[in-house]
Design brief:
Length: about 625
C-alpha cells in the first residue's frame, strides 16, 4: 500500500514541491520514496512494501522510459494477467503487481486494462508520447484518488492534504456543500469540501491532456441481471465458494497478514476463512463498559478456532483527545463515530502486522441493514393506499404536533428518493434551517442525490436502497474511514467482501434471497448468513448487528467531554456558520434523552475539521491539537 501525488508543471512551482507533497502523505508509505520530473510533469511516491519487497520501487517505467507509473493498492489477479501478457509477447523485470499495470497499458490500452483488473487500486500513468496523464480508481472506491483543477493548475494525489505541499494550491472552503455534509455526514458526489478539489469516482478514470481533464466510467455496478429463480440455499452455496476464493486472493503478500475481528458475522466469516489457509493473528477493540464492548465475543471465537487474538481497550480520553487528529487524517469532515475505534484498532494491529483483512461490504451487497426492512412496509402502504390519499394524510399529519404514526404518514406520501433515511441521515431540511446561520446555504439534499435513485428506477425499494448505499455510504463513509484510519498508521486493510467477483454475483440475487422472513421475523443478509453458518458457529452467523458501538452518547454528557463540546459550540467557527442558541438546545435535549448524538457529533467534528484545515480563519487552537502518527513526525 502506498501514496502518490503529482502535478502538471507550471512556472513558479519550486522543484522541491513534489517532495513536500509526498511528505504530507508519508504515513501511506514510510518504507521508501521515489520521484520523477521532466518538462511536463512531476510525480511523487511513498511506498509501503507488501509484494516483491526488493523490486517494487516507484515510479515504475515502461519500455524506453516513455511511461511512468505511480500506484496505490493491490491487484489480486496480477499473476493471471502477468501470464496472459507474457503469452502476448510482454516481458517482465519484476514479480510485482505494479508492473502488470505498465505492461497492460502498453499492450491493451487503458480501457481494456481496467476491464481485466481485480483488486483495490488507484494509479496514475504519465504517457510521455501522448503528453497526457491517465488516472483510475478501483470499482468500489476502496482506494482514494483526488485531483485539483482551478483552470490553471492541475494536480492529483492519494489524499487532499498532499496538495498543501504545493504553493499553487489555493485552499478554500466549499461553503456551498455545508448543508450536504450536515445531511449525509459526507459528500455523495465528486465534489469535496475544498473548492476545485474533486474525487475520481469509483469505477472511473480521468485523462488530462492539453490543459483539459475528462472523466469516464469503466465499471458501473447494476442490478440488470437479477435472477428470480435463485434460492437462498443455492445462493448460500455460491457465496461460500466466492468468499473462499476471495479470501485466498486477498491473502497474497510477502509480509504477515492479520485480521480485524468483531463479534459480527462479517469479520468472523472472513477471519475463519483466512485461518483455514494459515495461522492468522486477529485484533479486536472494546471498552471497559461491557455493554458496548465486543471483546468477550471476539476473543472467545478466536480461541475456539485456535487463532491468536489481541484485545485493545479504548477510553473516553483516547476518543476525545484523538478527534482533532482524526479530522486531519480524514481530509474532509466525516462524523462516523466509529472512526476513532478503527484508528486505535489499526494502531494496535500495526505493532504486529502491516496488512489486515476486514469485513466491510457484506451489509451493502447482501442486504444487511435493518433499515432496508421498512421498504416492505412502505411498499405495502403504497400498493393499497392511492397516492392522492397518502398525500392528503401526509399534509394533514405535518400540521399536527407529534403523535404516534405521524412520521410514517408524512414519509409514506413521499417518493423513495426523498424518503430514504440516508438522504437525511443526520439533519433534515427543517433541522438544518434551524442550525445554519446563513439560510441561503440550506438546500434540497434529496434533490442533490436523486439521480442515483433514477439509475435504478423501477426496481423494488430494497434494491434501490442497496444501490444507493453501494454508491454513497460504502465508498464515501465506510471505505473512506477504513482507508484513512488504517493508512494513518501505515497499515494496509483489505476487504475480501468488497470484491468485483463477489459483488457481481450479489447483483444477480433477488430480494427474496437477500432478505427473508422466518416465523414472521425478518432475516437480513439471509443467504450470506446461511453461507457463514456452514463455516462458523451458528451463534455468530445469527448474531444481531451491533455496528461497532461505543459509549459516545454517554461520554457527551460527561462534564469532562461536555465542556469541550460547549467550548466548540461557542467558538468563532461555530458563530460563523451556526446559530449557537440552537446548538445549545440540541445539547440540552441530548442530556434529557431527546436528541440525536449524531447531530452533536457532526457539528462538533466539523468545527474541529475547520479549525485544523483553516487555522488562519479562527482563534481556536485545534490545529495544535493534531498529534501526527510516527511516520509523519
Amino acid at each position: 500500500m502506498c501514496g502518490f501525488c503529482g502535478y502538471i508543471n507550471q512556472a513558479g512551482i519550486p522543484k522541491e514541491s513534489i517532495e513536500n507533497m509526498a511528505n504530507k502523505i508519508k504515513h501511506r508509505g514510510p518504507d521508501d520514496s521515489g520521484y520523477f520530473q521532466n518538462e511536463d510533469v512531476s510525480l511523487g511516491f511513498r511506498r509501503l512494501s507488501i509484494i516483491d519487497l526488493a523490486h517494487g520501487a516507484q515510479p515504475m517505467y515502461g519500455d524506453n522510459n516513455s511511461l511512468a507509473l505511480t500506484f496505490n493498492g493491490e491487484i489480486y489477479n496480477y499473476k493471471d494477467l502477468q501470464q496472459e501478457l507474457v503469452s502476448e509477447g510482454q516481458t517482465f523485470k519484476t514479480d510485482c503487481d505494479s508492473e502488470v499495470l505498465i505492461r497492460g497499458y502498453e499492450a491493451w490500452g487503458p480501457k481494456k486494462l481496467l476491464s481485466k483488473l481485480r483488486g483495490m487500486f488507484a494509479f496514475v500513468i504519465y504517457d510521455e508520447k501522448k503528453h497526457q496523464v491517465f488516472g483510475a480508481r478501483d470499482h468500489f472506491g476502496i482506494k482514494p484518488l483526488y485531483y485539483y483543477d482551478d483552470g490553471t493548475n492541475f494536480m492529483w494525489g492519494s489524499e487532499i492534504k498532499a496538495f498543501l505541499g504545493n504553493p499553487n494550491f489555493k485552499r478554500e472552503f466549499n461553503e456551498d456543500l455545508l448543508a450536504v455534509h450536515l445531511s449525509f455526514e459526507f459528500i455523495p458526489s465528486k465534489e469535496t469540501m475544498f473548492k476545485n478539489v474533486y474525487k475520481v469516482m469509483p469505477g472511473q478514470y480521468f485523462i488530462y491532456k492539453d490543459g483539459n481533464v475528462t472523466t469516464d466510467t469503466y465499471y458501473k455496478y447494476n442490478y440488470d441481471h437479477i435472477d428470480n429463480s435463485q434460492t437462498i440455499d443455492g445462493d448460500a452455496k455460491q457465496i461460500e465458494k466466492l468468499v473462499d476464493d476471495s479470501v485466498k486472493a486477498h491473502m497474497i503478500a510477502d509480509v504477515p497478514v492479520g485480521s480485524f475481528l468483531s463479534s459480527g458475522v462479517d469479520s468472523s466469516y472472513v477471519f475463519n476463512e483466512a485461518a483455514k489457509l494459515q495461522p492468522i493473528h486477529s485484533f479486536s477493540l472494546g471498552f471497559n463498559d461491557s455493554k458496548f464492548s465486543e471483546l468477550a465475543w471476539s476473543t472467545k471465537f478466536a480461541k475456539e478456532i485456535k487463532q491468536e487474538n489481541t484485545p485493545i481497550t479504548m477510553t473516553g480520553d483516547d476518543y476525545f483527545d484523538f478527534l482533532p487528529t482524526m479530522m486531519y487524517y480524514m481530509d474532509e469532515p466525516l462524523s462516523n463515530p466509529s472512526a476513532p475505534q478503527l484508528f486505535y484498532l489499526s494502531q494496535g494491529a500495526r505493532k504486529d502486522v502491516p496488512v489486515t483483512l476486514s469485513g466491510e461490504g457484506a451489509d451493502e451487497f447482501f442486504g444487511g441493514y435493518n433499515t432496508y426492512l421498512e421498504a416492505f412496509t412502505f411498499e405495502r402502504y403504497q400498493k393499497w393506499v392511492p397516492q392522492f390519499v397518502r398525500s392528503g394524510l401526509g399534509n394533514i399529519a405535518a400540521k399536527f404536533p407529534r403523535f404516534h404514526g405521524r412520521r410514517f404518514l408524512i414519509r409514506g406520501a413521499e417518493p423513495l428518493w426523498r424518503r430514504y433515511y440516508r438522504v437525511n441521515y443526520v439533519f433534515d431540511e427543517v433541522d438544518r434551517a434551524k442550525v445554519l446561520k446563513n439560510p441561503k446555504l440550506n438546500r434540497d439534499t434529496a434533490e442533490y442525490s436523486k439521480h442515483i435513485f433514477d439509475e435504478v428506477q423501477g426496481k423494488d425499494e430494497v434494491t434501490q436502497e442497496q444501490y444507493f448505499d453501494i454508491n454513497t455510504w460504502l465508498p464515501f463513509d465506510i471505505l473512506h474511514k477504513a482507508d484513512r484510519m488504517s493508512m494513518a498508521n501505515s497499515l494496509e486493510v483489505r476487504t475480501p467482501l468488497v470484491d468485483k467477483v463477489v459483488a457481481n454475483f450479489a447483483a444477480t440475487m433477488p430480494t427474496k434471497t437477500r432478505i427473508t422472513f422466518k416465523d414472521g421475523n425478518p432475516v437480513t443478509k439471509a443467504s450470506f448468513r446461511k453461507a457463514a453458518a456452514s463455516q462458523v458457529p451458528e451463534v455468530v452467523a445469527d448474531k444481531e448487528k451491533l455496528g461497532f458501538p461505543s459509549p459516545i452518547a454517554q461520554w457527551i454528557n460527561d462534564p469532562k467531554y461536555h465542556e469541550r463540546i460547549v467550548e466548540a459550540f461557542h467558538s468563532d467557527i461555530s458563530q460563523r456558520f451556526f446559530n449557537v442558541d440552537q446548538l445549545d438546545y440540541i445539547l440540552e435535549q441530548h442530556a434529557n434523552g431527546k436528541s440525536s448524538m449524531q447531530k452533536i457529533f457532526t457539528i462538533y467534528t466539523f468545527i474541529l475539521w475547520y479549525g485544523v484545515y483553516f487555522p488562519e480563519n479562527t482563534n481556536m487552537d485545534y490545529n495544535k491539537k493534531v498529534v501526527l502518527t510516527p511516520n509523519d513526525r
